[in-house]
Amino acid sequence: MKTHTAFLALAGALALTACGDAADETATDPNTDMTANDTAGADAMTPPAGQAAMPGSPQEFVDMAAASDMFEIESARLAQEMGSSQAVKDFAAMMIEDHTTSTANLKAAAAEAQPALTVAPELTAEQQTQLDQLRQAGDRFDALYKQQQVAAHEKALAMLEGYADEDGPAPLTTFASETATVVEGHLEHARELTVD
């Protein structure tokens, strides 16, 4: 119930922040970017702009979880290639390993659900934009990667914890509960990353 109430508060805050996204996109300060503006001053209780709503069906949950894993893997590959600090590269290696495992676990859970569900990862428009921002970040790559990782893991954790409390197929709610623990650890690690 506590998680469900927190999610409702999160969703309400999202609706309000989504209206201001267009103004953030016009920022011209070269030392900032749209994502930085959207999440500046945010704490763990404030969702990043563009926060996804809770899935309305088991298939939507599978789609959202698969997209989250795919984003983590793709952004981590960029971090290993473009990151400056060893801490970022090490974190990225952990993201590839853990989110590859998560995808395998999601596929198994989706296959066990009745009826069975399809796992076909596809990035959202927001996730694709974030990958494009990373590719163009230059010297700011590590800082932007950290910022995106914190926001992405906050989103994923809220989704997983929310779905774990839903009355969905048992294999999926179990997956959500178990994966939430891993994602929570990733979030703590991302917040502690030291970047220049």
Automatic annotation (TrEMBL):
Q: Which Pfam families match?
A: DUF4142
Q: Where is this region: Disordered?
A: 27-57
What positions does the domain DUF4142 occupy? 58-193
| Record keywords, A-Z | Signal
Q: What are the Polar residues biased-composition ranges?
A: 28-38
* Gene3D superfamilies named among the record's database cross-references: 1.20.1260.10
List the signal peptide residues. 1-23
* Protein name (database record): DUF4142 domain-containing protein
Which species is this record about?
Pelagerythrobacter rhizovicinus
